[in-house]
Amino acid sequence: MGIFDKLQELGKLVEGVNEVADEVGRSTVVDYGEPVYSLYTALKLGNLHRQIDITDEEGNVKYYTKSSIIAIKGKTDIMDTDGNVIAHLEKKPISLHEIHFITMADGRQFTLSNELFHIVNDITNIEELGWQIRGNIVGLSFNLLDGNEAPIATIGKKMISIHDKYCIDLYQPQYEQEVVAIVIQLEKMIEDRNDNEESSGFSFGFGD
Prior knowledge:
The protein is of the alpha+beta class. 26% of the residues lie in helices and 36% in strands. It has two helices and twelve strands, in the order αββββββββββββα. It has helices at residues 3-32, 176-199; strands spanning 37-43, 52-55, 61-67, 76-80, 85-94, 97-104, 109-113, 122-126, 131-136, 141-145, 151-156, 165-170. It has a twelve-stranded antiparallel beta sheet with strand order 7-6-5-4-3-2-1-12-11-10-9-8, with helices on both faces. A hairpin with a 4-residue loop joins β6 (97-104) and β7 (109-113).
């Protein structure tokens, strides 16, 4: 397959995933109404530690990440503006898959698996919390629901974005830090996938 054929394939893939993302956004407005408030996240391109900032609607930083220099360790802390760690992220290879651990400051731990990337529009359980992710996980456009199927948050992003910005609409603000940790860990998983694709000689351009 030539490069032109690959580009055509990429265009079809992006178009299809964007349609899914748009549909998630439309159903969110209809079904859930307006969120309590929104947060935003953007990867700092070219940053050695791949720092990610979480900002409020006015652009003020609320949280930021600190990652290990050696990417294979996969360790990241999410900090608040006072320098307190609110969550620790880590990945470990288990069998043929990587399990990504999230540990909150109070010791609660839950996991995400890279098997998430086998789906585009499906339901994924976060068993430790009793939550579900529904939507386009690869594009970080999905709804996060609690055990009663009530919205906790919705996350949206265009598949191809120079600034890699995501919008996090919060419906249950008491879970703000858990939601931030989940979104950042998913973003880290997409970065890892993108790095692996680049090392294999062809990238679809997900992440940075």
